[in-house]
Write a structure and sequence with these properties.
Layout (H helix, E strand, L loop, with lengths): L8 H21 L5 H7 L4 H13 L3 E3 L6 E3 L1 H8 L1
Antiparallel strand pairs: 1-2
Helix pairs in contact: 1-3, 1-4, 2-3
């Protein structure tokens, strides 16, 4: 029986950076950042920022409400900021 693969620590740290940025951005501007704004803030390519948010959605850390600025953290995603 094989063990389930865990998320590498590097990815967890990136998830925390993304979650923290999204949370602060929404608190300041009252709407979510775009992938480009996330990429610029934490020094990633837009493609990597999109990949990270996709991974985070798959893990239940965030949702996308279907618009360009539709990213939102779930309760589980907000826990990343606290830890």
């Amino acid at each position: 029986m094989s063990k389930p693969m865990s998320t590498p620590l590097y990815h967890v740290e990136r998830y925390k950076q993304v979650a923290r940025f999204i949370d602060e951005y929404i608190q300041e501007k009252d709407y979510a950042p775009t992938h480009r704004e996330i990429a610029e803030a934490i020094q990633l390519t837009v493609s990597r920022a999109h990949g990270l948010t996709t991974e985070m959605r798959e893990k239940g850390l965030m949702v996308n409400e279907g618009t360009i600025r539709g990213l939102a953290l779930t309760k589980k995603g907000k826990l990343l900021i606290i830890k």
